[in-house]
Amino acid sequence: MYSKEVLKHFKSPKNVGKIKNPDALGKVGNLTCGDIMYLYLKISKNKSGKEIIKDIKFETFGCTVAIANTSLLTTMIKGKTLDRALKVTKDDLIKKFKNVPLIKVHCSLLAIDALSEAIYDYYKKHGKKISSELEEKHKRAEKVGEELHHRHSEIVELEEELHKK
User: Fold this and answer.
1) Stated pTM of the model
2) CATH code of the domain containing 20
């Protein structure tokens, strides 16, 4: 059912965990399946002065493909500039995995949304210009987050409590 690449990233995910005092945090969820992702970024400047993703970690409460997608995404964007990272799409993730069941394609979008939210958070904290596209993605993610909390408040509160530990 799943490709070798999906199973590799699920069984041995890369960059799992939490970054203490992250420069940015992206938190997203999916209303249909209930998956929740936290994506942590540490940002620094490269030799030419551009901001890059120095470190990236994630926590995903979700299915095989959700975990594998987030793991794959972290390997693709670590060390990249924020602009370059924002250019990665769900289709890029799906191509790397070769075979993602249609019912699981939303997991690829969720990983991309977590990245967008993390970069939005970083830009907001540092007074940087936020593109209209990134602003629109943020509004969608915020709306879903509110609905997730409303529908699944007990589960969300439990995950939040676990997340604090």
Assistant:
1) 0.84
2) 3.90.1010.10
